[in-house]
Design brief:
InterPro entries: Ankyrin_rpt (IPR002110), Ankyrin_rpt-contain_sf (IPR036770). The chain has 326 residues and is mostly helical. 44% of the residues lie in helices and 0% in strands.
Length: 326
């Protein structure tokens, strides 16, 4: 290919700041990338809207040869773009395992935090990319790194139900009892989302099936962490929620069954005396109410809330109506 005229276009950019090197990097055309670099293009040209560099585009597309050529030309592997992410963050979340390996070999910071304090391992776990997770772990990435919400990579994988990612982190010895600022363990967040396979993997790894959350200052609710919304409805109390409470409140009957089969305490009470049965009844989760009753949950359990104190009812008097409607 004849690149005699390459120098003519090296400074050309479209309306949003895309240069020829951006497009060549994204397409993975190493020959064109090399020609542009030889012509003296700016390796750090950043798109005006997103801030993406050519290296970032090559990595997100998984073009490891283009990544290597750009790195050899001195492209900044630590350039920060949208959301405080580095190129390694993006390669990890897109599952571009070979690009991840090339960046790590070039010395990219495997513990860099984005705006949420998430490392590349968090991002790989969030999107369930088990090969990228293995590559990062083999390079020594911190499996217990805590984001700003306190969530670890295991929280991220569990919350999304990525069972292979969960398994990879567990094999590496990830802490099943790590808690977010909202006091949620990985089992809490998996239960809240109803991911019974992830729940099973965590239970087999020894996760505490009756772990009770305790919200830390600034925790923002029971489910705070990992992109998981706070689960405290009405005035049910913030502390003392178990995984079974979470699964029951959201109506995840299969998750409830998995936890009950593992021996979860069906009558565990939170700080306001609410059991999983109270929570399921309050939320009109009839299938869960029925499952808990079949398992022998105490239908006479009395909460601690007094008239005018928020919930406005004691015990499980609503059960008949709930089961009848279901």
């Amino acid at each position: 290919m004849d690149f005699v005229d390459a120098r003519v276009c090296v400074v050309v950019s479209a309306q949003f700041g895309w240069t020829p090197l951006h497009w060549a990097a994204e397409s993975g055309d190493v020959e064109i990338v090399a020609a542009l670099l030889q012509a003296g293009v700016n390796t750090e040209a950043a798109n005006r809207v997103l801030g993406w560099t050519p290296l970032y585009m090559a990595a997100r597309s998984g073009h490891v040869e283009a990544v290597t050529v750009l790195l050899q030309a001195g492209a900044d592997k630590e350039a920060v773009i949208e959301g405080g992410q580095t190129t390694l963050h993006r390669a990890a979340e897109d599952g571009a395992e070979e690009a991840v390996a090339a960046l790590l070999q070039a010395g990219a910071n495997k513990e860099a935090g984005n705006k949420d304090g998430e490392t590349p391992l968090h991002r790989a776990a969030q999107y369930g990319h088990e090969p990228a997770i293995r590559t990062l772990l083999q390079a020594g990435a911190n499996k217990e790194a805590a984001a700003k919400d306190g969530g670890t990579p295991l929280h991220r994988a569990a919350q999304k139900g990525h069972v292979e990612a969960v398994a990879a982190l567990l094999r590496a010895g990830a802490n099943t009892e790590a808690a977010t600022k909202g006091g949620a363990t990985p089992l809490h967040v998996a239960s809240q989302k109803g991911h019974e396979n992830a729940i099973g993997a965590l239970l087999r790894a020894g996760a505490n099936k009756d772990a009770a959350n305790e919200v830390r200052p600034g925790g923002g609710g029971v489910g705070g962490g990992g992109g998981v919304s706070a689960i405290k409805p009405c005035d049910m109390g913030q502390d003392g929620w178990t995984p079974l409470h979470m699964a029951a409140q959201k109506g995840h009957v299969e998750a409830v069954a998995t936890l009950l089969q593992a021996g979860a305490n069906k009558d565990a009470a939170n700080e306001d005396g609410w059991t999983p049965l109270h929570v399921a009844a309050q939320e009109w989760q009839g299938a869960v109410v029925a499952a808990l009753l079949r398992a022998g949950a105490n239908k006479e359990a009395a909460d601690k809330v007094r008239p005018g104190g928020g919930v406005g009812w004691e015990g499980a008097a609503v059960l008949a109506a709930v089961v009848g409607a279901w």
